[in-house]
Amino acid sequence: MKLYDSVGPNPRIVRMFMAEKGIEMPKQWVDLRAGENREPPHLLRNPHGQMPTLELDDGSYLSEIIAICEYLEEKQPKPAMIGSTAEERAECRMWTRRVDLNICEHIANGYWFGVALERFQTRITCVPEASEGLKKIAVNRLEWLNGQMAGKDYLCGARFSLADMLLYCWLDFGATVG
Amino acid sequence: MKLYDSVGPNPRIVRMFMAEKGIEMPKQWVDLRAGENREPPHLLRNPHGQMPTLELDDGSYLSEIIAICEYLEEKQPKPAMIGSTAEERAECRMWTRRVDLNICEHIANGYWFGVALERFQTRITCVPEASEGLKKIAVNRLEWLNGQMAGKDYLCGARFSLADMLLYCWLDFGATVG
After folding, report:
1. ipTM of this model?
2. Mind listing the pLDDT tens digit for each residue in B14-66?
């Protein structure tokens, strides 16, 4: 396997997931800031033009961080960062999607449509008037999440999982870009 | 297991997934239109107040449609509606997330913040000024997806999967609500 890597919270989540599992593989850097991810060499790997992308051993390409992490977990189950039983995996997938849809995606869109508009308006459909409101949803859902954390160290109780990595990397990114 | 069910595209996706696999279980109807999902009996099942929710055999509750469908696939792998190998599951998860984040979520938010604002503004943080723009992103991404479908019958090539169910149920909903 080979990871096509770049700056940004999403590649960071995959690198963190790999580090926790002790997975190492060749990496190739793609210059996201210069838009290399939106040009043919990378578009052949991921027609959606995003980062990161994993090249599998059969030469096919896999994108979307959740799909990549699930694949790595299947190929190397221990230590389990999604779960070691169907019930553990279910709990992690539930929290991962809640965090993804209600917090991370709103931070991402709020960023693309806001402070990063100049860079992204030529790459994706941007909705500048949505930026501030989407960030407010993320703040509101974070407050809800905070209330859900009573008595828990991690989103899945006592175990650190993919859900925490996703939340951490996007919150850290959000704190940097405002 | 027991499914807490309601109107709406998300419960429909789980019902469709169960039907394809021939899974039957008791169901309890929750009156979404009356807001029963936002009140304590259901909030104890799903503190995020959404539908559907699956009650597991140990009495715990599982929400978020992708987590529910993954759990049902693990408990009854055949016929595979996510995939029967790690590579097939990876492909399905990639397409499911692309459809989820770029199309379905924008249709959902565009609906909640737009034509359904009166009902939802007391339930969730709404961003009315984002509604039209988010729907435009969904349309743009659908056009992209259409280009990706050349030579394919389904999102995962020749096999019908969860990714198609997700897309179908949300497009059908979107066509109804405008």
Report:
1. 0.98
2. 999 999 999 999 999 999 999 999 999 999 999 999 999 999 999 999 999 99
Show the tokens assigned to B56: 């597991």
Chain A residues within 8 A of B62 when measuring between CB atoms:
90-91, 94
Residue A127 is part of which domain span?
86-177
Closest partner residue to B93 (CB to CB) among A64, A105, A136 is A64
CB contact under 8 A, A125 and B134: no
Q: How far is it, in rounded angstroms, from Cα B98 to Cα A12?
A: 19
If one counts the domains in chain B, the total is 2
Query: CB B43: neighbour CB atoms within 10 A?
Result: 12
Cα A76 to its chain centre, rounded Å, is: 20
pLDDT bin (cut points 50, 70, 90) of residue A178 is confident
Q: Where are the alpha helices (DSSP H) in chain A?
A: 9-21, 40-45, 65-75, 86-99, 105-112, 117-120, 131-148, 162-177
How many A×B Cβ pairs under 8 Å? 109
Q: Are residues A115 and A66 in the same domain?
A: no
